[in-house]
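sorry for the late reply, my laptop died twice this morning and i had to redo everyting from scratch. anyway the thing you sent over, i finally got around to it. pasting the sequence first so we're on the same page, its 282 residues, then the predicted structure underneath. double check i copied it right bc i was rushing
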Amino acid sequence: MSKTPYPLHTALSLAASGVPVLPLHRGKVPFGNCRACAGNACGGRPNMKTAGLCRCPGVCHAWAAATTEPAVITSPPWVAAWRQAVCVGYHPGGADLTVVDLDNADAITWARAALAATRTVPTTRGEHWIYRGTMGSSNAVRPGVDIKSTMSYARWLGPGTGTMTDLPDTVRALAVKEPSTAQPTPQAVAVPARTENGECRHRTPAYLDRGIAMAEQRITEARSAIHTTVYRTFLAVLSTHGRCGCLTDAHVARLFAAAQAKGESPRHCTDAWTNARTQLGL
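ok and here's the structure:
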């Protein structure tokens, strides 16, 4: 593997443009945690955008070490790492980017037919397709295709060519494993008892509103696997309220609005809702 010329200079240039960087050593992998941080004994650094629990000045915690701060990048521990580094890594999610890593010619051929055109960067064996927007990272979403965005790193191989476009639903869908719609087996759902006037005995308006609010919060706070979170949240709501007649169009609209605020399309919301109803035999 060829070594990136002047990795520190490249890193500082990228950081100045808002791309969080980290040094990678032989094998294109991050430097290991220092002795104090081994096994996350320090508490870890769970979120690149916050200091987390770890105050280690070294190059620890892989993608979470990525930074745009020149003072950190040029600090003594980092300079020592840059001297050993063979290339520059970056955190795509921290730069509001998603990299579709195409590992061979077959994967590239598939992408050209299936995905929206965007900026491309040649790699040793294939190409990186770079989109504007973030999603959960996932390996082997199909043969020769990985997704690198949040909680992941990628190797910097140059600015690439072409116009960068917004992350499309077709890429988001690659990381989602929806249940099969081919005659799914309905699941048993308990039907709440009703009073004489037809009202659901267990589902008071306050209980229902609290449930919808919790579902909205679950979707809103999701940091990865948004498609899956939306589907499972819809499934949970329907398993509780789907047969008691409590849900109204207003409730469903609230759930759809929460999902769309996280980047889901109206079509995907409708599909996820339909799949959840089908899975429960509603």
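The longest helix spans residues 205-220.
thats about all i looked at so far, will dig more tmrw
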